[in-house]
């Protein structure tokens, strides 16, 4: 039996980064678990008092969640283009907001 988490989202990067000593041009994200949320916090801020709800990303939490779900180090996330970090946030958003 394979215990490796299934890749659910693939993101092509705008630049090549180093991850675990390898050149990487795309990231593969797994589905987050409750443990990921408990350990790192929620990378998505959802203000349900507005109509429509305002959704933003926590810049202190998002990089750690990217690293954890993609299986790379925080140092690798720091090599990403800002646009790629923002895109990753939007790719992962649905996992961290309530169904509306």
Please describe what this structure looks like.
With about 100 residues, the protein is of the alpha+beta class. The chain is about 30% helix and about 30% strand. Strands 1-2 form a two-stranded antiparallel ribbon. A two-stranded antiparallel ribbon has the order 3-4. It is globular, with a radius of gyration of 14 Å.
Report the helical percentage.
25-40%
Q: What is the average of the pLDDT values? A: 93
- Strand order, biggest sheet? 1-2
Low-confidence stretches: none
Kindly state the number of beta strands: 4
N-end to C-end Cα span: 36 Å
Rg over CA atoms, rounded to whole Å, is: 14 Å
Oligomer classification:
single chain
Summarize the structure.
The chain contains four helices and four strands; from the N terminus they run ββαββααα. The chain has 100 residues and is of the alpha+beta class.
């Amino acid at each position: 039996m394979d215990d490796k988490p299934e890749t659910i989202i693939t993101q092509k990067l705008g630049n090549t980064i180093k991850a675990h000593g390898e050149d990487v041009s795309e990231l593969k994200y797994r589905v987050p678990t409750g443990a990921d949320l408990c350990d790192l916090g929620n990378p998505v801020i959802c203000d349900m008092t507005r109509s429509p709800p305002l959704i933003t990303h926590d810049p202190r939490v998002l990089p750690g969640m990217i690293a954890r779900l993609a299986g790379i180090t925080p140092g690798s996330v720091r090599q990403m283009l800002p646009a790629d970090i923002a895109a990753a946030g939007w790719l992962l958003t649905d996992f961290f907001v309530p169904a509306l």
